[in-house]
Amino acid sequence: MALSLLPTVAGFVLLFTLTSAQSRGDNVEVCTQVDAFGKYCPTTCGIADYLNRYKPAMDKDLNDMEEILDRIANKTTGAAEKVTYMRDSAAQQTKSGSDTYYKKSSDMLNEVVRFEKSIVEQESQIYNLQAVLESNEKRMLDLRQLSIQLEQKCQEPCKDTVEIKTITGKDCQEVANKGAKTSGLYYVKPAKATQQFLVYCEIDSFGRGFTVLQRRRDGSVDFNKDWVQYKQGFGYLSPSDTTEYWLGNEKMHLLSTQSTIPYVLRIELTDWDGNKKYADYAMFKVGPEADMYRLTYAYYFGGDAGDAFGGFDFGDDPSDKSFTSHNGMQFSTSDKDNDKFKGNCAKQDGSGWWMNRCHAAHLNGKYYRGGKYTAKDAGESGFDNGIIWATWHSRWYSMKETTMKMIPTNRVTDGDGQQTGGVKQFGGLGDN
Ligand SMILES: [Ca+2]
């Protein structure tokens, strides 16, 4: 009978007190489905979903209670009718003055007393139930008010404590060139972009500005997304660089194809023992959507993680290396198969990626805590679906953290003395 309203109220209060951080940055007012509220500003439809989730249960509880009250009321009416009937017949029999009926009448009167007693008990039950109902109605009213307040709050644009820096540019290097000294969230507007968008810029003491494209760090964001989601980007940007995201294929296309100075793609990896390695690719480009966001680069520019984009000889097939190289591959998602495999790599592995047949590098793979996993862990398909960089760890080892970021080629080695095949450190970034 007790309605479980209290936890719901607590949930609302919790929602209220959550620190809201910047969600995707753009389209704040659009009702965009997000994975969960997390610690970010909830969307209006997120709230609506939340309300809709608990409402049916509450409605059902109230209906049940109403039914019980009705049943009790019916019983009471029935009993009252019976008592009236018995009173009448007793009175009639007394009136008739017949001795033969005297004992019977007296028994009936006892019955009347018993029924009256039971009516009193039922009335007290009804009274208690009414009190419960009233108190629940009051709680519901409070809840409604709270939800109205919440709705109003959510209609306001997210005023975050998140600081978005004012300097803008066509990419993070230009932002740094204009004097930005600290890493954080900046708006950039690539040459062909119709509007600016938010990115995380990693700016170091050498004045280098890396534009960060992808981040894995704790498995908090599900990377099993469809074509549109990979196109637009998903996950969360944070000024403290503590969240996971995919910036989006369209933005990567705009960023990587805008300049006469080609970009280097830098991939940084951290394993579960805290070891860090990197790989650089020269003349990195992501093609337009018409070409399925094809990945191209000129050559492996260096790094100590090895050239997994170039494919890997797993020993299964003489052509393994060419079947698993990524240069020139179009992007595939579970709902758009552009790979070189008869099946659907992206669907099997639950990710979006530049799939071949399928991969030796797979940074959007499933997040496996602790690193090591087996075909059994990989679920139905049983294929290697972790966060893989096969030239460092085996395909049955999933990385702890990954970063994909880009920088104009002429700046990549500034400050840290990195050369092709270079130094076993991420230069000048203060890894700790
Ligand atoms: Ca296929």
TrEMBL record:
Coiled coil: none annotated. Keywords: Blood coagulation, Calcium, Coiled coil, Disulfide bond, Glycoprotein, Hemostasis, Metal-binding, Secreted, Signal. Residues 409-432 are annotated as: Disordered. InterPro entries: FIB_ANG-like (IPR037579), Fibrinogen-like_C (IPR036056), Fibrinogen_a/b/g_C_1 (IPR014716), Fibrinogen_a/b/g_C_dom (IPR002181), Fibrinogen_a/b/g_coil_dom (IPR012290), Fibrinogen_CS (IPR020837). Residues 1-21 form the signal peptide. One of its GO terms (molecular function) is extracellular matrix structural constituent. Residues 418-432 have a biased composition (Gly residues). One of its GO terms (cellular component) is fibrinogen complex. The keyword Coiled coil applies. Residues 163-410 form the Fibrinogen C-terminal domain. One of its GO terms (biological process) is blood coagulation, common pathway. It is found in: Secreted. Its main location: secreted. PANTHER family: FIBRINOGEN ALPHA CHAIN, FIBRINOGEN GAMMA CHAIN. Heterohexamer; disulfide linked. Contains 2 sets of 3 non-identical chains (alpha, beta and gamma). The 2 heterotrimers are in head to head conformation with the N-termini in a small central domain. This is Fibrinogen C-terminal domain-containing protein. It comes from Esox lucius. The lineage of its organism: Eukaryota, Metazoa, Chordata, Craniata, Vertebrata.
